[in-house]
Structures are given as structure tokens and as C-alpha cells.
Design brief:
The structure holds two protein chains of two kinds. Chain A is flat. A five-stranded mixed β-sheet of chain A has the order 3-1-9-5-7, with no helix packed on it. Chain A is α+β, with helices and mostly antiparallel strands. Chain A is built from one helix and nine strands. By secondary structure, chain B is an all-alpha fold. Chain B has a domain of 335 residues: Cytochrome c oxidase-like, subunit I domain (Cytochrome C Oxidase, Chain A, Up-down Bundle). Classes of the chains: A alpha+beta, B mainly alpha. Chains A and B meet through helix 1 and strand 9 of A and helix 1, helix 6, helix 7 and helix 8 of B. Bound molecules: protoporphyrin IX containing FE (HEM) and copper (II) ion.
């Protein structure tokens, strides 16, 4: 192989290896990019870190929305978890409280985090939670059972076409996860 | 100055001796033909390993109920079948063809980076062996599907980190192979072999190599995130820590959609090489073929979420990905048109490579049509994750990529071995394959439309009949592939007689590889050939 060719080869290899490294970085860059895009499109509001402030709405007595509650535990979370009721009829603008019950079924303390999800996704921005056990990681002592209220209201601006909103919580075990 | 000349001479000496003796020849070889052969043989073995897994799947699905394997193992089979076929059979087979044919087609003495070439082959073997080893680990092989979606895949037992490292190795191997192809094509073409004179197989591989370099690192990143989520408490995809499993799907399909084109673009290249020879006409629309390939490659980066219509994309996203996906049908249509136009009024003969190529044009088009159906976002809610999509991608992969790989085998085997294969058995292999592949996959369209989900070991009674038909097709198809093994061995041993240098009538007008003797000598084009204007320009 002539020296000239060797030089040309190592030049092209260097360039291509650079592309490879950039694309590896690009994969990771998709992570923050995804959050930004979700924000812009109002999709998939992930961990809501804090409560909404309690705004006064004018209550719309003429309209009734069905709110459904679903509870689930992630595969390995050793808990029992339920809502006091499956459905509620609510008037937009009015604040309601619904209780959830969760129990640690092991003999050791555990930490668990509930992740909320609202369906249909586009109704999410009209669902206001001013109190929720999902805002922080919960600690349960051995066999401890907790009653956990959620206080919420549906914004009266919710478009007419939404008649049912489903609120679902999943508990994830975080006992072995170090907080940062 | 003198030193330079001396070294130059040294290298020439090196080039002149033949292969090493014995087994060592294969381990340390840097010869593109040896490495190409190893890739092809390895791919063929993996084709049967993956095929055995497919037959386990089809045996279980022959009747409703659970009869042979437990559901966990069944799911491992669907996962491993796909991974072995994609990364162990189809991709390596095309790398093998690239190794053998690209230097000969562009008049180069070897690949640009011969030692790296050897390394990428052995890295592939190690990666696939590691993947196969997961079958014997505690908790079984990955069983969450070849897409490795979290959170399901994170429930894999001891095998998870090994599967992930194996993906890393396979990725590094393909990246090295791709870099080698690009360096070879850019730096080693014989004088006069301009880019627009290159055979289409070389063109499609050049574009495929760029795809690989762009997507394999992204896939490596995605599986690395899985690894750190499982073992180092990161939360890329873990909702409890603020992550999102849907993010994985975006990253995966950013890789995954171009990946399916990695398997089909070289297929297009071989079809465009074979069809003109047996139609005895130049390829219709050479330049448009090049541009269409580039267009498909470009579009493949911006359509990934058509695999995710049902995850809850914003409506604007659904519409964008729907229309962008539909656009792919245009350059694809250009290609199908060109192949048809090449055959139009040609003096066609129907040797085995041509038979497989014609079947490819017809059956690939059917796969493209079902793809087009699924690109309609609202309709895809019905098709998604059913046997309909299984039928779709098997039409684009088996009677397309695999048929064309078989065609390549028949087409170049006389050049590789110096002997002619038995045309009668070749045609028998073709007809058995072409008929059984349709018995195998066509009924899966009906099953999918009727609602049978993919990746399940058991199903409702109403799906029984078509599943049985499909399984029968699978066994005929699987066993008829043994004919190919027989033919390869028979041809190596002498076949039906010596092949001429040109092998196919007037083939030397279509490619430089037909100007060297058969079998191709260990070293070809150590001095660059003179490029005669080929017919496609
Ligand atoms: C005209 C061109 C094509 C179109 C419009 C198209 C469209 C689609 C769509 C919309 C899906 C997603 C279906 C779903 O999950 O509901 C899909 C899946 C798939 N396609 Fe295609 N496709 C085309 C060509 C190809 C080709 C050429 C290949 C491979 C050689 C291919 C391989 C696949 C594979 C492997 C999947 C399934 C991936 C999985 O979920 O496991 N497609 N295609
Ligand atoms: Cu796709």
C-alpha cells in the first residue's frame, strides 16, 4: 500500500470515527430534547414536583364530569394500594378530596413513589391537584398503612368534549434507590 | 526517497504469495475474499440457527394451546430469532458480499483496512456467541422482543448485561465494517471508475455504510441507558425517577427504522445487478436508482415514530409521521418501476438467480404495500402489534432480503468456486421457496386483521386454521433451504463442471468481476484494470 493511500485512509477513518462519537452523543442528547419537546407539545407531564396553587374557579353546576381512579403497583413493589372509590361525579371548578390507602406488606420499612398519569392526555392541563401523595417519595414503616388524600379540581375551561377523566397512580419501589 | 520505494516493493512481495496453510489461514487472514467467505459461511450457519428458532415458534403455534415449550421460552425464541436473523444472518451476509465483491467491482486489490476487516469479523463471532450464551443463563435469554423495550426487558434475569454487551460488540463490528467499506470506495477505486460508473451494489453499500455509522452508536447509547437504569440507578426510562419508557421507543426507532433499510438497500443493489444480466439490457434509470437509494436513506431518519402511532403522540406528530412515511413509497416505487422497465422487452432467461430476483420484485412490492397501509396512522391502530405487521416485515425481509441473498449465492458461486452449480436443483430450491414462503406468510395477514396479537404462545380457537397453514408453510420453507446447503457443497466439490470467466452470457459488460478468471484468484487487480465504459452509462 502506498504511503499516499495510507494517509488518505487514516484521514477518512479519523473523520468517520468522529461521526460515530458524535452520533453516540446524539443518542444521549435525545434525552433532554425529548423533555423539551414534551413540554412544548404539552404531552406527558412527568413528575409533577409540587402542588398547583389553589385558584378560585367559578363552579359550573350545569356540567358534570366523571373522574375515574385507577391504582396499580409496579411489579416488585411489596404494597397494597387502592382508592376509596372507583369513580366520582364532579362539577368543574369545585374542589374535591378523595382518599387513597396504601400499605407496606413487608416487615421492613420501604420507600415508594407514586407516579400519576391522566387520560386523555390532552385533559391533563385542566386537572389541578393541590394536594397529592405523589409529590414526594413516601416512607412506610413495617406493615404500616397510610390514608392519603388527594385534593383536586377540574378547570371549568375543560373543553366540552371531555366527559370522563381517568387518574391513575402507580407505586414504584424506591427503597434501594439513592436520591440525588 | 529510496526508503519509500523499498517499502513499496516489500509490500508487493507480500501480495504475491498465496494463502497461509491450514486453519491459521482463516484466523489471521486479511484477504478480502477469505474474510468474505467467512462472513458468508457464518451467516448461513446463523440462518439455520435462527431458522430452527422460527420452527420452534411455528411448532408451538401449529395448534392452539400450549404443547411444546413454556411461554417464557417461547418469548425468548421470538426475541432471539429476530436478533440472530438481523445481526447474525442478514447483516453479516451482506457484509460478506461487500467484502468479496466491492474490491472486485471497483478494481481494487483488497479492502482499504484489511486488518480491521479481520477484527470486525471475529468481533461479530464473539458478539453472536455471547448472545447465544444468554440462552443458558439463569432466568433465560431476553424475552421482551428484539426491540428490548423497558420496563419489560429490565426484568430479564442474569442475561441482561450479557445481551447488552453482545449488542455493543455487534455494533462495533458493524461500524468497523462500514468504515472499511466507505474507505475502500472513496480511496481504492481504479482510475476511471467514477462514482457514477460504480455498480449499484457498490452504491447501495456506500449509502448503507453511512446509515450504519449514524445509527449503530445511537443503539449502543440506548442499550447503555438500559444497563445504567438497571445497575446504576439512573432513571432514563424509569418513571419512578422521572424518566419515561416511551423515550426508549423514540431512541430505539431512530435506530430501528434505518436499520431495516440497512437490510434492504444492499438487497436493492444486488437486484439491480442481476436483473440486467438476465434481461440482457442495461439497467433502466441508473442515475434515478442512485438518487432513489439516497432519498430512501435520508427519509429513513425522519419517519421513526410510525412504529409508535399508538403510544399517545400529539396529533401533529401522528400526521407528520404518517405523511413522511408515505413519502418513502415514492423512491421505492421508482425502483420497482426501474426493475420492471429493465425486464420490459428484454431477452430474458430464467436461471436461478433471475428467478429469485423476479420473485423479489413481486413479493417485496407486496411488503411495501402493507407498509403503506400501516403508515395510515388511524388504520395502524388496528394493525399494530398484530400478525399483520409480522406479515409485513417478513415479506420485506424473507422473500426480499433473503431471496436476494440466495440469488447472490447462485449468481456469484461460479465466480467464487470456479464451478457451475446444478441448475435443476437450484430451480427446485427456488420453486419450493417461492411457494412455501407465501403459504407461510400470506395467511398471517388474515390472522392479523382478525386480531391475533404477535409474540403470543397460545391463541383463540378462531385463529387455528390459518396458523396451521402458516406452520406447514414454515416447515416446507425451512427444510427446502437445506437444498441450498447441498448445492453450495456440491458446487465447491466440482458441481456440474468448470465455469468460464464470464459465467453468464455477456456478463463482463456488466461488471469487472467477470473479467477475472473463475475461480477468482487469491489476489485480483493488484494493478488497476482499465475501466471500459459499462453499459449503464
Ligand atoms: C414502503 C416502505 C415501507 C413502509 C411504508 C413501512 C411501514 C411500516 C410501518 C408503519 C410499520 C409499523 C407498524 C406497526 O408497528 O404498527 C412497519 C414495521 C416494520 N417494518 Fe416496514 N415499511 C416499509 C418497508 C419496510 C422494509 C423495506 C423493511 C425491511 C427490510 C421493513 C421492516 C419493518 C419491520 C422489521 C417492522 C416491525 C418492527 C417491529 O415492531 O418489530 N419495512 N413498517
Ligand atoms: Cu419503520
Amino acid at each position: 500500500m502506498s504511503q499516499d493511500l495510507e494517509r488518505k485512509n487514516s484521514k477518512i477513518v479519523t473523520k468517520l470515527v468522529l461521526v460515530v462519537l458524535v452520533m453516540f452523543g446524539f443518542g444521549y442528547a435525545l434525552v433532554p430534547l425529548y423533555d423539551v419537546l414534551c413540554d412544548i407539545t404539552g404531552q406527558n407531564i412527568k413528575l409533577q414536583a409540587a402542588a398547583d396553587s389553589e385558584t378560585e374557579f367559578t363552579v359550573d353546576e350545569s356540567r358534570e364530569i366523571t373522574v375515574e381512579f385507577i391504582t396499580a403497583i409496579n411489579e416488585k413493589t411489596p404494597m397494597e394500594f387502592r382508592a376509596e372509590t372507583r369513580t366520582m361525579k364532579v362539577h368543574p371548578g369545585k374542589y374535591y378530596t378523595v382518599n387513597f390507602y396504601a400499605k407496606n406488606i413487608t416487615n421492613n420499612p420501604i420507600k415508594a413513589q407514586a407516579i400519576p398519569s391522566i387520560s386523555p392526555g390532552l385533559a391533563e392541563e385542566f386537572f389541578k391537584k393541590i394536594q397529592c401523595f405523589c409529590f414526594e417519595t413516601q416512607t412506610f414503616q413495617a406493615k404500616e398503612e397510610k390514608k392519603m388524600p388527594v385534593r383536586f379540581a377540574v378547570n371549568p375551561k375543560l373543553p366540552e368534549r371531555y366527559k370522563i377523566i381517568t387518574l391513575s397512580y402507580t407505586f414504584f419501589d424506591r427503597t434501594n434507590i439513592t436520591e440525588n | 526517497m529510496t526508503a519509500v520505494v523499498a517499502e513499496h516493493d516489500d509490500h508487493h512481495d507480500h501480495h504475491d504469495h498465496g494463502p497461509e496453510k491450514g486453519i491459521l489461514r482463516w484466523i489471521i487472514t486479511t484477504n478480502h475474499k477469505d474474510i468474505g467467505t467467512m462472513y458468508l459461511v457464518f451467516a448461513l450457519i446463523m440462518f439455520f440457527v435462527g431458522g430452527t428458532m422460527a420452527l420452534i415458534i411455528r411448532s408451538e403455534l401449529f395448534e392452539p394451546g400450549l404443547q411444546f415449550v413454556d411461554p417464557q421460552f417461547f418469548n425468548s425464541m421470538t426475541t432471539m430469532h429476530a436478533l440472530v436473523m438481523v445481526f447474525g444472518a442478514v447483516m453479516p451476509a451482506f457484509v460478506g458480499l461487500a467484502n468479496w465483491m466491492i474490491p472486485m467491482m471497483i478494481g481494487a486489490p483488497d479492502m482499504a483496512l484489511p486488518r480491521m476487516n479481520n477484527m470486525s469479523f471475529w468481533m461479530l463471532v464473539a458478539g453472536v456467541l455471547l448472545l447465544a450464551a444468554t440462552l443458558f443463563m439463569e432466568g433465560g435469554a431476553p424475552a421482551g422482543g428484539w426491540t428490548l423495550y423497558p420496563p419489560l426487558v429490565l426484568q430479564t434475569g442474569k442475561a441482561l448485561p450479557f445481551a447488552i454487551f453482545s449488542v455493543h460488540m455487534l455494533g462495533i463490528s458493524s461500524i468497523m465494517g462500514a468504515i472499511n467499506v466507505i474507505a475502500t470506495i472513496f480511496n481504492m477505486r481504479a482510475p476511471g471508475m467514477t462514482l457514477m460508473k460504480m455498480p449499484l451494489f457498490v452504491w447501495t453499500w456506500l449509502i448503507t455504510a453511512f446509515l450504519l455509522i449514524a445509527i449503530m452508536p445511537v443503539f449502543a447509547g440506548a442499550v447503555t441507558m438500559l444497563l445504567t437504569d438497571r445497575f446504576f440507578d439512573t432513571s432514563f426510562f424509569n418513571a419512578a425517577g422521572g424518566g419515561d419508557p416511551v423515550l426508549y421507543q423514540h431512541i430505539f426507532w431512530f435506530f430501528g427504522h434505518p436499520e431495516v433499510y440497512v437490510m434492504i438497500l444492499p438487497t436493492f443493489g444486488v437486484a439491480s445487478t442481476i436483473i440486467p444480466v438476465f434481461a440482457r439490457k442495461p439497467l433502466f434509470g441508473y442515475a434515478s436508482m442512485v438518487y432513489a437509494t439516497a432519498a430512501i436513506a435520508f427519509l429513513s431518519f425522519i419517519v421513526w415514530a410510525h412504529h409508535m402511532f399508538t403510544v399517545g403522540l400529539p396529533i401533529a406528530g401522528e400526521l407528520y409521521f404518517m405523511y413522511a412515511t408515505m413519502l418513502i413509497a415514492i423512491p421505492t416505487g421508482v425502483k420497482v418501476f426501474n426493475w420492471t422497465a429493465t425486464m420490459w422487452k428484454g431477452e430474458m432467461t430464467f436461471e436461478t438467480p433471475m428467478l429469485f430476483s423476479i420473485a423479489f420484485v413481486v413479493l417485496f412490492t407486496m411488503g411495501g404495500f402493507t407498509g403503506l397501509m400501516m403508515s395510515v396512522a388511524p388504520a395502524d391502530f388496528q394493525y399494530h402489534d398484530t400478525y399483520f405487521i409480522v406479515a409485513h416485515f417478513h415479506y420485506t425481509l424473507v422473500p426480499a432480503s433473503v431471496f436476494i441473498l440466495m440469488a447472490s449465492g447462485y449468481y456469484w458461486l461460479p465466480k467464487w468456486t470456479g464451478n457451475m452449480y446444478d441448475e435443476r436443483i437450484g430451480r427446485l430450491h427456488f420453486w419450493l421457496s417461492a411457494i412455501s414462503v407465501n403459504i407461510l406468510f400470506f395467511p398471517q395477514h388474515f390472522l392479523g386483521l382478525a386480531g391475533m396479537p404477535r409474540r403470543i404462545p397460545d391463541y383463540a380457537i378462531q385463529f387455528a386454521d390459518w396458523n396451521m397453514v402458516s406452520s406447514i408453510g414454515a416447515f416446507i420453507y425451512g427444510f427446502s433451504q437445506l437444498l441450498f446447503v447441498y448445492i453450495v457443497i456440491d458446487t465447491i466439490r466440482g458441481g456440474t463442471g468448470k465455469a468460464t470467466a464470464e459465467v453468464w452470457e455477456d456478463a463482463s459488460k456488466h461488471g469487472l468481476e467477470w473479467t477475472v478468471p473463475s475461480p477468482a484468484p487469491y489476489h485480483t487487480f493488484t494493478t488497476p484494470p482499465e475501466i471500459i465504459p459499462t453499459e449503464h452509462v
